[in-house]
Amino acid sequence: MDDQPRLMHSSHGVGMAGHPGLAQHMQDSTGGADGEGRKQDIGDILQQIMTITDQSLDEAQARKHALNCHRMKPALFNVLCEIKEKTVLSIRGAQEEEPPDAQLMRLDNMLLAEGVSGPEKGGGSAAAAAAAAAAGGGGSDNSTEHSDYRAKLSQIRQIYHTELEKYEQACNEFTTHVMNLLREQSRTRPISPKEIERMVNIIHRKFSTIQMQLKQSTCEAVMILRSRFLDARRKRRNFNKQATEFLNEYFYSHLSNPYPSEEAKEELAKKCSITVSQVSNWFGNKRIRYKKNIGKFQEEANMYAARTAVSATNVSTHGSQANSPSTPNSAGGYSSPCYQSDRRIQ
DNA sequence: GTTTATGATTCGAT
DNA sequence: ATCGAATCATAAAC
Length: 346
Hints:
Layout: H1 3-15, H2 20-31, H3 35-52, H4 57-68, H5 73-93, H6 102-113, H7 126-135, H8 143-185, H9 193-234, H10 241-253, H11 262-272, H12 276-292, H13 294-317
Helix pairs in contact: 2-3, 6-9, 8-9, 10-13, 11-12, 12-13
This protein binds a DNA duplex (14 and 14 nucleotides) through α9 and α12.
């Protein structure tokens, strides 16, 4: 049980480690019975502590300078840095070098694809180009919608770039400020260049999360704009009369098998100034609607059958078969193209 | 304003 | 991937 006093003593020693002088005083004075002298010592020490705050800035600066010029300073600094490196920072070091954020990459890719973050006006937006292609040559009317889209996109683009620049500038300013501060402090505190670099990284990461928010909201804005534009594209425009005639011509002259091949679709698309998928849509709609109500299309069918017959006759008089359909439904006849259930459309 | 026509989209089947 | 079918959404006709 004689361990107890020693333990207590040692614990006191630790507790006073920061003020060895004070501990010394207290220990010394426990031996003597002079309470007055002890009071006096404590008073002195308190006085000293209080006067520290009264030191002028110049005095502190001078002390700092003196400390800096001390011959042991570099060695001491290195040792402190090493200790610091080995303790706190090594723990944090393990979490660094995280892989590039997947979401950030996606946002970047999208912004690039939409022409928001890419080169200025150059090739224009890929989306706009695609949309223009999809809208087809059928309508010269959609040019206003298109320019509207482009105007809105460039507006978004402008806001994005100004904001991005602002953040970048703020980031740089802040980084410089912190670096200067740390460099200054590294004269009196163990701050290694590596640590400053680390701090800069942390700042950059913080700012990049802000930038990511900007990118996120920009992406949202583009998506909204795009969905609106897509909706606008959904606004149906009838094909022009000639295009419809070309399509009907093919349909009724291939009534037994109204399924144009890919090549035929391409040719029709070219002739009608529409896309291949529009041709496919048209045939899909036509087949189902014809099938649903053959009676309604009878007149139309007769008309195109007659026309085909006439053109076939014309062609035959010229001794050429170039324009002849591969599977003429009513070759040479005026008979109404009766639809039969054993044909492809059922 | 209602109805019809028509191009586009979606969904399940093949 | 392409088709039929149902459906949507809008243009055009009434």
